[in-house]
Design a protein that fits this description.
With about 200 residues, this protein is an all-alpha fold. The chain has 2 domains: about 70 residues, Arc Repressor Mutant, subunit A, CATH 1.10.10; about 120 residues, Tetracycline Repressor, domain 2, CATH 1.10.357. Helix 3 crosses helix 4, helix 6 packs antiparallel against helix 10 and helix 8 crosses helix 9. The longest helix is centred in the C-terminal third of the chain and has 25 residues. The protein starts with a helix and ends in a 6-residue tail after the last helix. Pfam families: TetR_C_13_2 (PF21993), TetR_N (PF00440). Keywords: DNA-binding, Transcription, Transcription regulation.
Amino acid sequence: MDMKSKLESATKVENPTKVAILDAALNAMLAHGYKAMSFRDLAAEVGIKSASVHYHFPTKDDLCYAVMQRYSEDYAERLLLPKKKRQAAQKALNKFIDDFKTKVVDQGHVSLCTVLAAEKSLLNSATSQAIADFYDLKSDWLATVVSYMKKDWMPSEEARAYASQILASLHGASVLVRSTGNKECFEQAVAPWRNLVDRI
């Protein structure tokens, strides 16, 4: 088994130590970024030796990739398409927005992908690709949901444009909230998407 396969397997096996390391690494990156994350600090938080972190994840690149993979897999499991009805689609979009607010904005941080994208020059190609794949996953879902809102056919280019605008609003709003401390910025930014079904 090659290293990539081992890491992908590591994100799926419920080994308590691996899970604890992944959780600690995720929290560390959300709080301080990729560069500041250290195996020594992670080991201290988990209550193991630094060598044990290296045993499960030989390098920092390996650990970051594993965190991103698990993050994507967990997200994909929750990302279900609604019924192909206009109001059901709007309800699904609003839930998507609410989930982002709960898991990102209300926690006082920006998303993992936003953090990592800011340090992309430090990441290996596998992690960079995992981030791109994650955004493709969300864009595809959003484009499909938005297309369900149109009374008649919607060109895929138009649906993808809406998806990009929605993602930009969410991530941009999270940065504004973190920068200003004003949580009202989030609802102001996403308000147009709350009733999109009435405008297309």
